[in-house]
Amino acid sequence: MNRNRIVGIIYGIGTIAASIYFIISATVTTLTCTRIESTCELVQSRLLRSDFVQKIPLNQLLGAKVDVSKRMGRNRYQIKLIAKSGEIDFTNFYSSYDESKKQKNAYLINTFVQDSKIPTLEVQQDERPLTYVICGIGIIFGLGTVISSLNHKE
After folding, report:
1. Which residue of 1, 8, 20, 134 has the fewest C-beta atoms within 10 A of its own C-beta?
2. What is the DSSP letter of 39?
3. CA dist 105 to 64, 96, 112, Å?
4. Tens of pLDDT along 110-146?
5. What is the CA radius of gyration of the chain?
6. Membrane spanning segments where (predicted)?
7. Nearest to residue 48, comparing CAs of 72, 64, 27, 76?
C-alpha cells in the first residue's frame, strides 16, 4: 500500500470521526422561567448524553446580552445570561450562525425580567440543524476519500 493511499484513508477516517463527534456534541439549550415558582431552569441537551440542568432563582436573573467576539475577521455571537453572581453562558460557544435568533432570545429574556406581568418564559437556541448539515457533508466527504483511497490503483 503506498503512502498517498494510507494518508487518504487516515484523512477520511479522521474527517468522519470529527464529524460524528460534532454531531454528538451539538446542543439545544432551553431556558424556562416561571414567576409562580420564582425560578428559571437552563437545560442543555445533547445526543447520547444526559441533560445538563442549571437552576437559577428568578430574583438572581438580571437579564441577557448577546456577546460578540471577532475571530478570523468574522463576528461570532453568544448569549450570556446576566445574574447577580456573574454571567452564565446560555450557549456553549460563539457562533456566527443565527445572530438574529440570538438577539431575539436576549430581547425576550430581558422583557420577561423587566415586566413582572409576564408569567412564564421559554426560549430555545438550537445549534443542531447547521451542525448536522455541515457534519453530514463531512461524513460524505470522508467516506468518499476512504473509498477513493481504497480503490486507487498503484
Report:
1. 1
2. E
3. 9, 15, 11
4. 999 999 999 999 999 888 887 888 889 999 999 988 8
5. 21
6. 6-28, 130-150
7. 27
Q: DSSP labels for 58-87?
A: GGGEEEEEEEEEEETTEEEEEEEEEETTEE
Strands 27-34 and 39-46: antiparallel
The cell for 57 is 432563582
pTM: 0.77
Helix axis angle, 3-25 to 128-151, nearest 10°: 160
C-alpha 63/C-alpha 87 separation (Å) is 10
Q: Which residues pair with 34 in a beta bridge?
A: 39, 120
Residues in the chain: 154
Reported as a single tens digit per residue, the pLDDT across 88-106 is 988 777 776 678 888 999 9
Copy the grid coordinates of residue 81. Answer: 445570561
Instruction: Note whether 54 and 72 are within 8 A (CB).
Output: no
Copy the grid coordinates of residue 42.
Answer: 437552563
Please state the separation of Cα 14 from the chain's center in Å.
22
